[in-house]
Write a structure and sequence with these properties.
The complex is a heterodimer. By secondary structure, chain A is mostly helical. Chain A contains two helices and no strands. In chain B, 86% of the residues lie in helices and 0% in strands. Chain B has helices spanning 3-26, 37-68, 71-105, 111-135, 141-198, 204-232, 241-274. Chain B is elongated and about 90 Å long. Classes of the chains: A mainly alpha, B mainly alpha. Chains A and B meet through helix 2 of A and helix 2, helix 3, helix 5 and helix 7 of B.
Chain lengths: 93, 277
């Protein structure tokens, strides 16, 4: 009886020691540095009273449309180059 | 019916129909309202392809005649040369029509210049139409060669007109874009005057930037005028007409670049106006 009690106490003691000794190993975490994208336009931190002016906004829209047309204009018109025709017709060797 | 009545009837019919016949024969080509550049250009491409095939057949027939000198090979050479020359005239004609249609669809061309080019293009279109019809009357290879040389001489003049029209088309595009930018500049000038009056923002910097943009618009116009001067120097006997055209085209590309820079300046200007001091 005494032996059983002793063994039980030893078992309980060893369990409590195991819980204390087994510690979770800390997992190192790596964080990659992702640079923030640079804004294409400098954000207007403070805007003047003309930021929402109707005339200014209209001009801005017109400029965007003009810029798009400037970029898409065909300056070559290669389809309209004159055809290559043989004008030298003869029957000489 | 009495002979006098029949004579009178024929006379009346002649009086009615003669003007219509003359109008049809001698009028300039009339273009249907639904005839646009795309259709004209497709017609030209189809014709050009037919010409190339006819030219290949002409080359073969020509060589066969030069090699064998038989009556059969001569007849074959005549037939293939005639066919090729017809397609060549038709190619020149449809190309000129496509060019004319493109000019018509490109707005902003100065009226006088537009009408002068139209008249000259119509003349050449009519000439090649008539020349093609006259080819059938050529009875020999020598006649065909003579007809071909007539067309060659005429086309040498047409080339000068072609390059002038091409520059006119490209310049018209620049003119339209420049007009729009000038309207924007005009609107901005009014707005900057308003800002200066209200004294709620210092407009000095935007005024300088506006001047930069106006300078670029002016340089763009100068380059376009330079392109017009270049193409005005081309003459019918110049063997390097295309070289002169490409020089004019380069000047127009520089004109276009100045417009891009002006637009960029104006965009920066707008951002500055919107920003607080």
């Amino acid at each position: 009886m005494a032996t059983v009690i002793l063994i039980t106490i030893l078992l309980l003691f060893s369990l409590s020691l195991g819980q204390k000794t087994v510690r979770p190993r800390p997992t190192p975490t790596f964080t990659l540095f992702t640079p923030q994208p640079m804004p294409l336009e400098t954000p207007v931190s403070t805007s003047s009273g003309y930021g929402s002016d109707a005339a200014i906004l209209k001009i801005e829209e017109d400029l965007k449309a003009i810029n798009n047309d400037l970029l898409s204009t065909d300056l070559k018109e290669a389809d309209l180059n004159p055809p290559l025709l043989d004008w030298n017709i003869d029957f000489k060797q | 019916m009495k002979p006098a009545s029949i004579t009178l009837l024929f006379f009346i019919l002649f009086v009615i129909t003669a003007p219509a016949i003359l109008l049809f024969k001698y009028s300039h080509p009339i273009f249907a309202q639904d005839f646009n550049f795309n259709r004209a250009h497709n017609d030209y491409l189809y014709t050009f392809n037919q010409y190339r095939q006819a030219h290949d057949e002409y080359i073969v027939a020509r060589q066969a005649y030069l090699n064998y000198q038989t009556l059969t090979s001569k007849a074959e050479a005549h037939e293939k040369t005639l066919n090729m020359l017809k397609w060549r005239d038709e190619t020149a004609r449809t190309y000129l029509i496509a060019l004319r249609t493109k000019l018509a669809e490109t707005t902003g061309v100065v009226n006088y210049e537009q009408s002068t080019l139209y008249v000259k293009l119509d003349d050449d279109i009519s000439w090649f139409t008539q020349h093609k019809e006259n080819l059938t009357a050529a009875g020999s290879l020598e006649d065909l060669i003579e007809n071909s040389n007539e067309a060659k001489k005429r086309y040498s003049n047409s080339e000068k007109l072609i390059y002038q029209t091409l520059v006119s088309i490209l310049a018209a595009k620049e003119e339209k874009l420049r007009d729009r930018i000038e309207q924007v500049i005009s609107a901005l000038e009014k707005k900057i005057a308003e800002i200066r009056q209200q004294q709620d923002k210092d407009p000095s910097m935007v005024e300088r930037w506006l001047l930069e943009a106006k300078n670029r618009v002016k340089w763009s116009r100068d380059k376009q005028n330079f392109a017009n001067q270049i193409i005005a120097t081309v003459n019918s006997y110049d063997p390097n007409k295309s070289r002169t055209y490409f020089d004019a085209q380069s000047a127009l590309e520089e004109s276009h670049q100045y417009l891009k820079e002006a637009t960029f300046n104006l965009s920066e200007l707008i951002r500055e106006v919107k920003r607080a001091d």
